[in-house]
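Q: Structure tokens for this one, please.
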Amino acid sequence: MRTKINEKGTQMEITQAMRDYLYKKLEHVEKFIDANDESAMFNVELGKTTNHHRAGEVYRCEINLHLKGRDLRAESEMDDLYAAIDIAKDEIVREIQSGKERRISLARRGGAKLKNLVKGLFNK
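A: Here is the predicted structure, written as tokens:
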């Protein structure tokens, strides 16, 4: 893994199995991050929450991803810690992709306007 990862356990200790699973999932997220972005950093918090309206233990996963120029955040709560990690990972990937799609769309709209402007100059 080339991206720095800070991990924190809240009301629980992070075991090596949890850490291995988390790193495996974050490797998947790294595929969507620009390889030249050396400022990329994950801040991950895994923990147990106490919700009085639910029975049993509830696990929480929060992923904060700092990229060049923006910060992304994903959070999930589930009865299973590994499911919470999966959902948070999917959410952070969606945020990365939607930001990329917005930038591409903006560039295409700008390019289309420029093309129409140039067409207008030559058609007169």
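A few notes: DSSP finds two helices and four strands in the chain. The longest helix spans residues 81-122.
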